[in-house]
Amino acid sequence: MNRRLALLIPLLLLAVAGCTTGPADEPAPRPAAADRPSPFRDCAALGTPPTAASPGAGTTAPATPGPGTSTTPGGPALPELTLACFTGGAPVALRSVAGPAVINIWASWCPPCRKELPAFQRLSERAAGQLQVVGVNSRDSRGGAQSIGEDYGVRFPILVDQGEAVQRALERNAIPLTLFVDAQGRIRHVDATGALDDARLAKLVNQHLGLTVPA
Hints:
By secondary structure, this protein is α+β, with helices and mostly antiparallel strands. It has helices at residues 2-25, 111-126, 142-152, 165-170, 198-209, and strands at residues 69-70, 82-85, 92-93, 101-106, 132-138, 158-161, 177-181, 187-191.
């Protein structure tokens, strides 16, 4: 009996040691969003036109709209609104965003928005120098938006619209919503057909902004 007890004591000590040291091996909790750097670029360059955009870019004739889309000949101007930039700094007048531009209105709680955001990030990389890709985060929490940016690799500049002012100005309720804005600052097309992929985005950019972007 004493021999069995002597063999069991070291095993019990090892088990106790394992329980007490376990938490130290667990990954550290994720810092709060306010304590993490923003994944998005700042908005300082939004008023600077894309360097490679040709003078006639964005002047192609509007295509025939399909379900969930809207196109106005000539195109209305962007709403006269001023929005905060996610990264801070001076607020941005929406009409000061230099086109050609693709403006995507999204929220972290919207499944189609999450699905299409990586395609917009790829568009921003493939079309660098031709057009700007800008996000408008609508009726969302800062933590939710930041986590989506981190998890989905979204880096383009993000404006914040907590009151859905852009959607109200456009008389649109649903998101995601994507605006195709020409070099003169006119909205050439509004898309509300759901999650867009690379091929669809490239096609819309070509149809409404006259730019060829690899899909």
